[in-house]
Sugar dehydrogenase (Hafnia alvei FB1), 252 residues
Amino acid sequence: MAVNSSPVALVTGASRGIGRATALLLAKRGYRVCINYSQNHVAAQALALEIEALGQESLLVCANIADEIAVCNMFNQIEHHWGRLDALVNNAGILQTQSTIEGLTAERINQILHINVTGTFLCCREAVKRMAKRHGGRGGAIVNVSSAAAKSGSPFEYLDYAASKGAMDTLTKGLSIEVAGEGIRVNGVRPGFIYTEMHADGGEANRVDRIKASLPMQRGGEPEEVAAAIVWLLSDEASYSTGSFLDLAGGK
């Protein structure tokens, strides 16, 4: 039996929005895709069927990335199933209802940091263990999905979320230097004002429509536009890019 040499990608938080669009585009570009999700099995299963309809393999893994044991198990499943990992997209993240700092609790702050920051660290750690040349890996590429909020601070709405994405940017820069000699590239994207379901999590489903007139491009972005940037950063076309960021926020 011929060995499948197609590259393997893990997309966290892949059941909706930017993660879903990225998983589909990776499949179209010839990747086998591990679909990570934490709750919505129906949406994740539907995505898997779409990927398989494109002629590519998929692997469904339900795992909360803030759970260290679950993260380790997920990477072990990928290794057992396909024997390799070439690309990681750290897309999973949460935000909560819009609030000024006066409404933030330690529980809320810690939950956001635990998933958005600790979870991303854990996934990067496990990916490096498998990609690094010193461990017998082939190298690889990691893209961290940050946010325009990392630069704006998102005052009056999502200070805690913005801070978590700022931490992700610091991780991206530092890790890119740490693993450059291991054949691993680490880059980030900073989407902003994208039409995804996440805005409803913050209590304002139509937030992009409220804000879009103030943007230089005067429109919101689509998940597929962010996915295109992510997939480019993962590709050989971006082979000399590491520690860099693409801003995808309509010029804001």
